[in-house]
Amino acid sequence: RVGGIGRLVDVVTKEEHYDGNCKGRSLTQGVGLPVALFVRSATYGHLIALLRTRARCAHAFGTEVMKDMPLILITPQDGVKVLTKKMEQELLKIAARDLNPFQNTSIAYKTTMENTCKEQLQQKMDELLDLDDDNIQQMLTPEERARIAGGFGATDESTVSLLMEAKRMDTAMDSVDGSKNLHTPQNHNGNHLQDIVNEGLACAVRSSDYHTARQLLILYSLVATQSKEIDSLKNSDESDSSAREELGITHIVDISDSKRRSFDTNKGNFCDAVVKRNERGELKQHTVPAPPPPPPLDTDRLRSATNSDGLLAVLGAAQVLRAMQDGGAKKRVYECISAIDEWVDHGQNSVAFRLSSWRDQLAAQADLKIAMEHDSSFMAFVSNKAITNRKQFARKLETAVSTGSFQGLEFLQAIHEIVSRMHSPCLRLELLQFVLGLDNRFSVAHLARSVELAISCLSMRATTTAQN
């Protein structure tokens, strides 16, 4: 609709008019709203592209304008056919069940981890599908919506709504007689949230979509680690500004009408505390424990199914969080420190032992194709460099252990510092892979990316709440 009563811009005042009483029409600035979106063939690729185009237009023209926009097929043989709401829902069901998921091929090569263009990434974000429609929720199961979200991309709001629905289901089942009630569905294992995320990640792996997999893992961490301690605190009050200043609180962030958390703008971080007025009317900070890592995700099968650097980083981050949550990292760290100290004791007393260790390392790199950037240096083992590096590595691991908690940011930050100072590690890289439960494809770069994303997952909830 060109120059029609859709959106007319006054070329003098630059104001938009919708009643047709514009003083001066402009075809460049006064193009009206679209009347329909169409495709020329009924292939699945073109139909999914049509849905993505509608989502992108919704960002440009508004959701309400595009909500009931007709989607049509125009061909010389069949003329004009309308893609009805029912047909659209059937299309999504087929996409979730039978289609191999795919990205927008025109921008996929510009939205990888190694090569991300700002314009193409913005287009990818604009094309995310909205799955919050009531008809879609009734037509598709949560598992099918998870496959759509992971394989074709869905808005953050849709994904969070899906994850919250799964979490509420887990909570409801667990609250009924300790999840042992006879009314509990037999196919419900109490891990519905993890199952939903695994479905989404599997489809993201199939479509080689790094950004969608990364966002799904972050949103899962936000939803799964909501602090119960915060929800249990009632009747917080921050009306007394002088009292807040005495507590060192510079900004209050609303959680709900009765609960607030504090953000210290001087330190630039989010405080794990809630402001609450006590019985005498005094404002006090109530410390809230930092959220633990989210429940573990079983990504072993997915990691073996991909060689994409970006997806390895995402799935590696999921494994790092899993190793922290189930206690595996804690046990293996102590084993590594003991093994390094034993190697150092033997190496200091025998050059032959060091040379034998060097030959074994070369054989492992050749046979197992360990992700090393360089072969083991012969001179490092002849001299004392290998001994010095491994001594320092063991002491840094002890420092990471001394942080006190294997489920907090401090441990991950200590590991990240160790990784960032590595140049050409061999045994040290193998030991870190062992500690975090990763396979030998994870090089230093992969390991660093995985740890960085795991840190983001644990800290993102506080940052997001503070910004809101």
Structural class by SSE content: alpha+beta
- Approximate shape: elongated
Spatial separation of the terminal alpha carbons: 39 Å
**How do the strands line up in the largest sheet?**
6-7-8-9
Number of helices: 20
Topology:
Blueprint (H helix, E strand, L loop, with lengths): L7 E2 L6 E2 L19 E3 L4 H18 L1 H4 L4 E5 L3 E4 L2 H13 L20 H9 L7 H6 L2 H12 L2 H20 L16 H15 L3 H15 L3 H5 L8 H6 L5 E3 L5 E5 L4 E9 L5 E5 L12 H5 L4 H17 L2 H22 L1 H18 L9 H5 L2 H17 L7 H12 L6 H10 L7 H24 L1
Parallel strand pairs: 3-4
Antiparallel strand pairs: 1-2, 4-5, 6-7, 7-8, 8-9
Helix pairs in contact: 3-6, 6-7, 6-8, 7-8, 7-9, 8-9, 9-13, 9-20, 13-20, 14-15, 14-17, 14-19, 17-18, 18-20
Describe this structure in words.
The protein has a four-stranded antiparallel beta sheet with strand order 6-7-8-9. The longest helix has 24 residues, at 444-467. 54% of the residues lie in helices and 8% in strands. The protein has helices spanning 44-61, 63-66, 85-97, 118-126, 134-139, 142-153, 156-175, 192-206, 210-224, 228-232, 241-246, 300-304, 309-325, 328-349, 351-368, 378-382, 385-401, 409-420, 427-436, 444-467, and strands at 8-9, 16-17, 37-39, 71-75, 79-82, 252-254, 260-264, 269-277, 283-287. It contains 20 helices and nine strands. With 468 residues, the chain is of the alpha+beta class. It is elongated.
